[in-house]
Design brief:
Blueprint (H helix, E strand, L loop, with lengths): L14 E4 L3 E5 L7 E5 L4 E2 L5 E2 L5 E4 L4 E10 L9 E17 L2 E4 L1
Antiparallel strand pairs: 1-9, 2-8, 3-8, 4-5, 6-9, 7-8
Amino acid sequence: MNLGTVGVSGSPQSVSSQLGNVTVTDGRGGTAGWTATASAVDFTGPQSISVSAAGSSSYITPAASVSGTANVTSSDLTPLYPPGPVQVATGVNGINSATWNPTIHLT
């Protein structure tokens, strides 16, 4: 994923990008719900520029498109460390799936 380019300056810089579709498919066919979590790790890029996972990152979660029977609730995650839930399915009955396209934001 390419988050774009920012110039180096004395003030904080931000970049954002959509991650691409994320899909959970629950093929168990039962009534147990499920939880999708997200997290990040520290990142070091070119010229040893680093971004702390615990610092200024977020995962913006839109509502999921759901197929089958499930109530899927989204929640944003800021920061991306420690890991946390971003989609939770309840009221599940049978095979179901959920798809969403989150945005990653780094400052």
